[in-house]
Structure prediction request, 296 residues.
Amino acid sequence: MDERYDIIRMVRDKRFRYIRNYEPLKTYYQYMNTPEKGATMAELRQLHEAGQLPPAAENLFVATKPVEELYDCNADPHEIHNLAQDPRFASDLKRMRNVHLQWVQDTKDLGLIPEPIIAERRAISGSEYSILRQAGGDEYNSKLGRIAAAASEGPDVLPELLDALSDPDSAIRYWGATGIGNIGMAAALTSAKSVVPLLDDPCSTVRTAAARAICRMDRPQVALRILVNELLHADQWERLHAANVLDEINEQARPVLEEMKQGLQYQQGFTAKGKYRVRVINRALNELQGTSNTVR
Prediction:
């Protein structure tokens, strides 16, 4: 989605539609420069800010998403009433969930690996297709699918997330840190000491995920130096990940406003490659400073 990331998967049969939101702490609609310039988003945002959207449309702007959604497309063709928590549909939910999890394995869902890590592994394996098709790929893919799902399952799977922090694989460590960050303050007392060492992880994407987790535990002073360093000195997609976290943490980022302004500068000779990161940082600065200028 241009400058933003999300991971959503869907299963459909003749009656039901099942949705798995791997990043439930993100709104359905993340701010993106291109659609914001269009008439549709201008109208939606104007009505939202005026409190005039009907409830079903207002749902577009809620701060978070449910982990799972289930809709009866016969009775509810506009998919407004989420049945995932309705015990009458528990068996349908489980069936559709299992189909999704099996699909992840069967297709070797590369989208569960963060884009910067994909770029690293593509350079080694020769193609994206081959990344999950190495020796031992099936076992690894199963492990990746499980930890990616666990990252949105809350405190009950905290021991599994903590174990993931010491895994030799960077994508597994990423999801462990992301899941602990999703739990946030509820994990602070038991997990902060385990997450802090990942601020010096050899993988930039893991460092950023760890910094986000520390911020969500309300300890941004420890993490801001990492986010700024990734923003200003890492590679293209790694810088974008850091920019999105700086935008996500809102007021916690205020102490590094000046450093964020440096992030508005394109790398010399790489103008096009820096545009997404610049858009995100520009949006974050606008919100923090009460400004409204837009960059392309």
User: Anything to note?
Assistant: The beta strands are 8-12, 16-21, 68-72. The radius of gyration is 20 Å.
